[in-house]
Amino acid sequence: MSLSALVLNCTLNPSPAASSTELLAQQVLDALAEHHVTGSMVRVVDHDVLPGVQLDMGAGDAWPGIREQLMASDILVLATPTWMGQHSSVCQRVLERLDAELSEKDERGRLRTYGKVAVVVVVGNEDGAHHISAIAFQSLNDVGFTIPAGGVTYWNGEAMHGTDYKDLPETPEAVASTTRTLAANAAHLAQLLNGNAYPPSSTQ
């Protein structure tokens, strides 16, 4: 069964700047590839995603094109840096735009995101990964995504120092192991959901 994943990289750094968020997100894509999942990445800050909670906010809005890629994928990888203990403003913009999915249903009353798996990537030089993943999990589940066991991989450096994930001489084994588990569980769940749709909505 062919599966695909899309990373929405919510770094604040436009291309071509190096990005720790992109590095860990790419490691997730590489781990997913070991389970025959193809992947691609969008650096959201490079696109003019307008504020709002509609599918299309009008002229110049880049979200409809990004959403088209998302809807064609089986797995969403939402990747964010940590700033002031929170997910990035770009990540918040993505979550707000996903709110529009609550009004998009199929002929059996199910959200069109049902059957899609979502996982989270968090990097930063301070604490916050558990807080950020909790917010992201709830938000993504609210709009129809399914979260697998072990659905987050993260790296938080020591507080008040300047080392970035991309500057580490090698990937810490704890991060690499967590990333491998995330990929295995996400691919497994996506395959199960791909062949076994959720039941019709009771509110249809």
From TrEMBL:
Stretches assigned to the NADPH-dependent FMN reductase-like domain: 10-150
Gene3D superfamilies, A to Z: 3.40.50.360
Source species, domain of life: Bacteria
Identification of the protein by name: NAD(P)H-dependent oxidoreductase
